[in-house]
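INFO batch 0412 | record 1 of 1 | parsing
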Amino acid sequence: MPMETAAPGRPRDQKVGLALKAAALRLVREKGYQNVSVAEILKLSGVARQSLYNRWKTKADLVMEAFFEDAGTRVRPPEFRPGQPARAELERFLNEVFDHLAASDGTLRSLIAAAQADPEFCRLFHDSFVQPREEMVVDFLAEAQRRGELPAGRDPAMLAVFIHGAFWYRLLNGQPMDPALARAIAAAAFGD
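INFO prediction complete | emitting tokens
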């Protein structure tokens, strides 16, 4: 994922990057990705155009980094903790994902729509957001299988597709994503 990189010369003011990301995320939440212009982001952030382009190549790069970082602060990856069964940890993770999606108020749906209309944005969205999360779930399930918590013969990669597919389907159709769904997905994944 394109991240802010320091150019030779004077050090970057971190507040500028934070202001741009906050403005981009706020506007995309309010209006949807396709309805937000770079000019609006600059106006809300109070930052000069060159400062944006010194940090990110495109609006898409800025928005994806902002959304990625926001998700990272709200959703902890699934992990193995003493006394916590893998199934319960997957359920906890899904509940945090669902809470983040609810707080994001349609942002992800907006990004998905933009990805369908723009092949370059689709590639960026997949590479910087979708694939890393899918790999995180596959790795977690593979480790659960090694530990004997996930039945042998279950394919962690295919289970990750089913897990994501279940809640993406609900997300795209405006259906509830709640603790009952998290419980049902975790139970199905672990064969309960």
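INFO post-check: The chain is about 70% helix and 0% strand.
INFO record closed
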